[in-house]
Amino acid sequence: DTPGSHRRSIYRFVVRSVPDPFLERLDCPDPSVQAPKRSTTITAIQALELKHRGTLIRVDTDAGISGYGECAGSGPYVRHAIATLEGPRLPHLGLIGKDPLNIRVHHHNMFYAYAQRGRQMKVYSGVDMALWDLAGKILNAPVSTLLGGAFREEIQLYSHCPGGDFQSKSEWRDRAAMLKADPRGFEAFKVDIHHALGLNMQEFSPSIGPREAARLGRAYELAREAFGPAIDIIVHCHCELDTTSAIRVAQAVEPIAPMYLEDPLAPMFSESWMALRRSTRLALMTGENIELPEQAAPFLDRQAVDILQPDIVNSGGVTGAKMIAELAARYRTPVALHNVSGLLLALASQQLAASIFDCPRIESQRTADEIPWARPNPLVIKGGRMKVGRLPGLGVELDSEYLKANRADGEPWWS
Q1: How does residue 37 score in pLDDT terms, banded at 50, 70 and 90?
Q2: CB atoms within 10 A of CB 173
Q3: Cα–Cα distances in Å, from 121 out to 86, 115, 116, 342?
Q4: What is the per-residue pLDDT for 116?
Q5: Cα–Cα distance measured from residue 361 to residue 341, given in angstroms and rounded to the nearest whole number
Q6: Structure confidence at residue 241 as a pLDDT band (50, 70, 90)
Q7: Which residues are CB-contacts of 185 (< 8 A; sequence separation ≥ 6)?
Q8: How far apart are CA 326 and CA 329, in angstroms?
Q9: In terms of C-beta density within 10 A (0-12 exposed, 13-18 middle, 19 or more buried), how is residue 232 classed?
């Protein structure tokens, strides 16, 4: 046998059970079968700032398909960052004219090839999110499938406790009753220390003395009493404390057995995290402000925290957060996802969380299923869990009329 005929005999053996028409096409290709269409290319990247929260990004293609993401920054700033990416200095790193499915290549060019990005990180993360939405639409698959498949059909959630007088037992009774009556059925809430101390967020010295610690301990004692044992509590800081104060906070709240102590120290790794780690039995959580796996690595190497909480918009997009999760998996460290923005971030977080093996829960606004950007809103929250969507991409059709009516002042419409 010639080499060609030998290969053909192998093919016949492999597909022996396949219907004859397929064999005929192997031997004699049907001239009516059209060749694959040329690759889709990116034609534009646009931004649209909304009145109340955030800026949307749209990546357009010559196939008439667009992908959407969201990011931080005003519309003019986001458009400037996009123009910088596509500008004349390093045009080979831009996305215009490129295949949108080369997401990892685009991610490298946005975040690594030219690293002096600064605040543009939060813009290019939104571009990356839009690329994943676009890829799912092109390939007719949800983002979780493109990321390797979904480990779960529902994502457990935690949400936010509203403020008020945290030293008032009656207020705690009413607050807890309201949250427990929510039909979405959340079973875990962040409770902020600045409310417990009667202060505005981060509007105080980072040092907490014994009297403040006692006041804080009393607030969380009231929270536990009002919620009961069935509701988990996350002690929520904002990276504002010094080391001694973080240790005092941990000691003050330890009696209520919180699920996590979140972000007590500055966001970047330092030996302060190890001092806190040695001083408490509480589970520590951080990560919403870290960028890319390089900033997560020292927390994992030193086992400084018990769970990482990257934010897709802050961490390098879906791609960057997935890289952090893959690194964390090597250390058997679980990953949550920080999510306090709009509908697209909620959907991206849902799809990414489904694809991560050790992702016990993610953050969600309590009214995320009411965000009015879509028709209909695709988020389904019940029993404290979010159903993982199976529609292509991020699985949302944006309401153009709503977006047009709720643009920020002076913001141009999509071109």
Answers
A1: low
A2: 13
A3: 15, 10, 10, 18
A4: 56
A5: 17
A6: very high
A7: 381, 382, 383, 384, 385
A8: 5
A9: middle
